[in-house]
Design brief:
This protein is of the alpha+beta class. It contains two helices and four strands. A four-stranded antiparallel β-sheet has the order 1-2-3-4. It starts with a helix and ends in a 5-residue tail after the last helix. This is DUF397 domain-containing protein. It comes from Actinomadura monticuli. It holds the Pfam family DUF397.
Length: 70
């Protein structure tokens, strides 16, 4: 995915981001299938992860369950 494909998308910052802005995740919906894109807000031109909506729902469910806690 090129930077040109994601320019102008409305990115939303996580409500769980720290107040000092150092640990921020942003997400945006892209395309007719509403794929979910995720990126690090400190590096908006850096890597972007793309998920199908169903994959994103599974990821969020598992994250809320604590499956990724260290």
């Amino acid at each position: 995915m090129s930077i040109h494909q994601i320019e102008g998308l409305p990115w939303r910052k996580s409500s769980y981001s720290t107040t000092d802005g150092t640990n921020c995740v942003e997400v945006a919906a892209q395309g007719k299938t509403a794929d979910v894109l995720a990126r690090d807000s400190k590096n908006p031109s850096g890597p972007v992860l793309a998920f199908a909506q169903s994959e994103w729902c599974v990821f969020l469910t598992e994250a809320k369950r604590g499956a990724f806690d260290l």
